[in-house]
Specification:
Radius of gyration: 23 Å
Shape: elongated
Order of helices and strands: EEHHHHEH
Number of strands: 3
Number of domains: 1
Number of helices: 5
Distance between the termini: 39 Å
Strand order of the largest sheet: 2-1-3
Length: 163
C-alpha cells in the first residue's frame, strides 16, 4: 500500500473553495522515471528551479571530476549516483516545488493506487464540514517551558518518576 501526501492549490481569483480536480497526490517512494530520465521527468512536472540546480550540480561534478583526472567510469558512476538520489528524493522535490508555488499540504492518505487514495481522501473530505476541515500546517502551541531543578536529571519532572 502506498502513502500519498495531498496538496491543495492556491485559490484562484473567482474561487470561494478549492477545486477538487486540481488537488495533487504525491506518492512516497522511489520514482523510476525520475531516476532513468531525470531532466525529462523534471520538465514534465514543471520543476524548473530543481532542473536548474540539477544541471548546475551535474555539470559541476562532471567538470570537477574531469579536472581531477578521474576516468569516464568514475564520472559515469557519479552521474548514476546523482540520478539514483533524484529517483529516491523525487517526491520531496515535487513537494518543495508545490509549496514554493503556494500549494498547501492538507493531508496524508494511503491506498493501493492513486485512485484508491483519492477515493479515501475525498470521502473523508466531503464528510467533514467545510469549517472543520483540518489544516495540515495548523500552528501548534509551543511546548511548556520547564525550569530544571538541581535534583532532577533528564526529562522526568519528579525525582524517581522514571520507575
Amino acid at each position: 500500500m502506498s502513502v500519498y501526501t495531498v496538496h491543495e492549490p492556491p485559490l484562484r481569483v473567482a474561487e470561494a473553495a478549492p477545486d477538487p480536480d486540481r488537488f495533487v497526490f504525491v506518492r512516497d517512494g522511489f520514482y523510476f522515471w525520475a531516476f532513468l530520465l531525470t531532466p525529462l521527468w523534471m520538465l514534465r512536472h514543471r520543476l524548473w528551479l530543481v532542473l536548474l540546480i540539477y544541471v548546475a550540480v551535474a555539470a559541476g561534478v562532471d567538470e570537477a571530476m574531469y579536472l581531477a583526472g578521474l576516468g569516464t567510469a568514475a564520472i559515469a558512476l557519479a552521474e548514476f549516483l546523482i540520478s539514483l538520489l533524484i529517483g529516491l528524493e523525487a517526491a520531496t522535490l515535487r513537494r518543495f516545488s508545490l509549496k514554493r508555488r503556494g500549494w498547501r499540504n492538507v493531508g496524508v492518505v494511503s491506498g493501493e493506487d492513486v485512485e484508491d487514495a483519492e477515493r479515501r481522501f475525498f470521502d473523508a473530505w466531503v464528510r467533514s464540514a467545510p469549517g472543520q476541515r483540518p489544516a495540515a500546517a495548523a500552528p501548534s502551541a509551543p511546548p511548556p517551558r520547564v525550569t530544571p531543578s538541581p535534583d532532577i536529571i533528564g526529562l522526568f519532572p519528579d525525582p524517581g518518576a522514571n520507575r
